[in-house]
TrEMBL record:
Pfam families: DXP_redisom_C, DXP_reductoisom, DXPR_C. The gene is dxr. Mn(2+) binds at residues 146, 148, 217. It catalyses: 2-C-methyl-D-erythritol 4-phosphate + NADP(+) = 1-deoxy-D-xylulose 5-phosphate + NADPH + H(+). It is an enzyme of class 1 (oxidoreductase). SUPFAM superfamilies: 1-deoxy-D-xylulose-5-phosphate reductoisomerase, C-terminal domain, Glyceraldehyde-3-phosphate dehydrogenase-like, C-terminal domain, NAD(P)-binding Rossmann-fold domains. One of its GO terms (biological process) is isopentenyl diphosphate biosynthetic process, methylerythritol 4-phosphate pathway involved in terpenoid biosynthetic process. Coiled coil: none annotated. This is 1-deoxy-D-xylulose 5-phosphate reductoisomerase. Signal peptide: none annotated. It comes from Leptospira yanagawae serovar Saopaulo str. Sao Paulo = ATCC 700523.
Amino acid sequence: MVGVSVLGISGSVGSSTVKVLRQFRDQFSLRSFSVHSNWEIAKSLVLEFSPEVICITDPKLVGQFGDSFGSTKILYGDENLSELVKLPNVAVVVTAVVGARGVLPTIAAIEAGKKIAIANKETLVTFGPLINQLVAKHKTLMVPVDSEHNALFQLIERETRSNIRAITLTASGGSFRTLPIEALEHVSVKQALNHPTWSMGPKITVDSAGLINKGLEVIEAHFLFGFSFDEIEVVIHPQSLTHGIIETLDGACLQYTSHPDMVYPIAHSLFYPNPTPQMLIERKPSTWKTLEFFPPDTKRYPGLDLAFQAGRAGGVAPCIYNAANEEAVALFLEEKISFTTIPRLIESALNQITNVFPETLEGYLEKDKETRNYIQKEFKKGGVTT
Ligand code: MG
């Protein structure tokens, strides 16, 4: 039995992980998990899997449900996420919490020698150089769960590294791929949340609509696989069937294609280095019909170019990109700014905040905070926000 800890179990990656755990009950046991505020889900999963410890992270709910439920211990707050991953009989940690708050439990898991199924892209984007140092020091096995990176991980592993000329991440193009560009200024939150192919949480769905999710993924790919920003490409692929492509020196392109369901990369990351032992969903290539690929339109998706700029600048620029985006998306979801203001705020933060190259976590956290304050200040001033 392989012990599993899932941080953020009620989200979309978390619930797909539960599906995989149910399918392989004889091989994995859920030892700990966190939810932000969804007690109903937490309760039913405790009854089903009897984990040792769970954590509820919403600060408004501290103490609300006592300190145990049956034989399961209940902890509260982000600061206790690290306790979940350190349990001696946890071997794999799935980090599926959203945002830069995933970093501390990820570091705790690395230091405790666990295998990491990383589904929290913000941790790598924001703290990439630091996480990579720790991964190297502790010889951590880190398997990406993000569908594109998991596909690329599997392709890269099968090819000689020096024979790979470039890697390509596919993007569905999000909710507004075919909307006239002039109309983007006035789209509603509800429209942005209507993703054509993937069913995901609100933050990542908004990120996808502006290709900022892809921007974050480009930076994530850089830190995961060590390719330079000139060797990473993005292609719009509306069907979301091909998730990653590697181009070899001779010009051939190898694609990883599967039905768009997160159970594939999650099962792969749980079983790795062993193969997933059985078919998860039966979808034959003959049912796919069309696979289309287009270059991304930079006018429609200005946030993608900003990610390449931030990635090339290095230092805390990716951290600024991520923090500015998290704040701006929250403002958009509260209907306080327009959709097109999101990349404008990110650009402004990248231009105004001084880039540095910190050696400690605190250095990154400081810039993360400075960026968030900057965005709130800009919003109140009404400068770039109208
Ligand atoms: Mg993805």
